[in-house]
């Protein structure tokens, strides 16, 4: 499918000017660092599966990856342990509950269901084969970097802020351990999960990470493979459809029709397989945990470019 490249830049600019004065939402406050980020920041980027980069606004500001990190640890775990085992141990269904729900774990025999909620993400981390927590962390960091096409780094400021307040996640990790769905030491898994959320990316990095998914796991800027098994990409996209935008995932699929993922740092990513990825960042969140400006901008750009996975007839040649 070919998209007029000038239409991409126009859609990115229009979305930025349409939503920049939107005052809706509030920064996440349960992680002190996130509460302190300037709420006016707003950046957008599109990266195509053949490596063209479009950007506007605060697209080079580095923000915390947060929940979007779950996508890339999921990729690493699927790639290393294989799809059947990953599916059996973690799952592929929406929980219908908030991202940090304890009730969702209790309701489903301690099975996390989705790798894109906190329980499933920690279980996913624990599945990645490694001899130590440090080795597991380095694998996750290398995977984030391979998808982004540059060295992604941990923010000590974000990590310290999260590690000193992540008691709820620690409780979930122990719950999973008691139910047999945590495959390493639970506090190690929680620690590594917290670190993976505390790396910094720009909107351009995030769009590049998504474009690597769109290009079946090969980074379109570096031309290097970020995964060894491209057949994990469709299940990754399915998981993103199920649970990518928290409890608003169904609404997102209905209205936008693209697999996506958001994080409480204010990032939102959407992927049109084979074509491109759209990323936006702005800190204030709606009650579901999705950035207000970023969610609107990504949805509008997708619509302007006529990108919707469920409109397959539009792409028939
Ligand atoms: N580190 C955050 C947490 O575990 C990430 C949550 C998110 O972005 O949804 O609470």
Automatic annotation (TrEMBL):
Annotated catalysed reactions: L-glutamine + H2O = L-glutamate + NH4(+)
InterPro entries on file: Beta-lactam/transpept-like (IPR012338), Glutaminase (IPR015868)
Description of how the protein assembles with itself and partners: Homotetramer.
Keyword Transferase: no
Binding, substrate: 67, 118, 162, 169, 193, 246, 264
The UniProt record lists the keyword Hydrolase: yes
Family: Belongs to the glutaminase family.
UniProt keyword annotations, A-Z: Acetylation, Hydrolase
HAMAP family, A to Z: Glutaminase
Protein name from the UniProt record: Glutaminase
EC number assigned by the record: 3.5.1.2
């Amino acid at each position: 499918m070919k998209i007029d490249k000038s239409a991409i830049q126009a859609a990115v600019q229009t979305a930025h000017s349409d939503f920049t004065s939107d005052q809706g939402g509030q920064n996440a406050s349960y992680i002190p660092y996130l509460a302190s980020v300037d709420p006016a920041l707003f950046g957008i980027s599109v990266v195509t599966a053949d490596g063209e980069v479009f950007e506007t606004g605060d697209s080079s500001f580095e923000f915390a990856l947060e929940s979007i990190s779950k996508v890339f640890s999921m990729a690493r775990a699927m790639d290393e342990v294989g799809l059947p085992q990953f599916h059996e141990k973690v799952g592929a269904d929406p929980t219908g509950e908030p991202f940090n729900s304890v009730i969702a774990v209790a309701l489903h025999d301690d099975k996390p269901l989705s790798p894109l909620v906190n329980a499933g993400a920690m279980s996913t981390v624990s599945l990645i084969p490694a001899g130590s927590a440090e080795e597991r962390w380095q694998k996750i960091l290398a995977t984030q970097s391979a998808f982004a096409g540059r060295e992604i780094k941990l923010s000590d400021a974000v990590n310290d802020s999260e590690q000193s307040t992540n008691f709820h996640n620690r409780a979930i990790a122990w719950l999973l351990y008691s139910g047999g769905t945590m495959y390493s030491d639970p506090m190690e898994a929680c620690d590594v999960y917290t670190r993976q959320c505390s790396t910094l990316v720009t909107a351009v990095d995030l769009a590049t990470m998504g474009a690597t998914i769109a290009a079946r796991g090969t980074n379109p800027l570096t031309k290097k493979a970020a995964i060894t098994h491209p057949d994990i990409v469709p299940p990754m996209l399915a998981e993103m459809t199920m649970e990518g935008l928290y409890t608003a995932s169904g609404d997102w699929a209905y209205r936008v029709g693209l697999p996506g993922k958001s994080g409480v740092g204010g990032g939102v990513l959407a992927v049109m397989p084979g074509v491109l990825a759209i990323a936006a960042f702005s800190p204030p969140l709606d009650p579901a945990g999705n950035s207000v400006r970023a969610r609107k901008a990504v949805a509008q750009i997708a619509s302007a470019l006529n990108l919707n996975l469920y409109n397959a007839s539009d792409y028939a040649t």
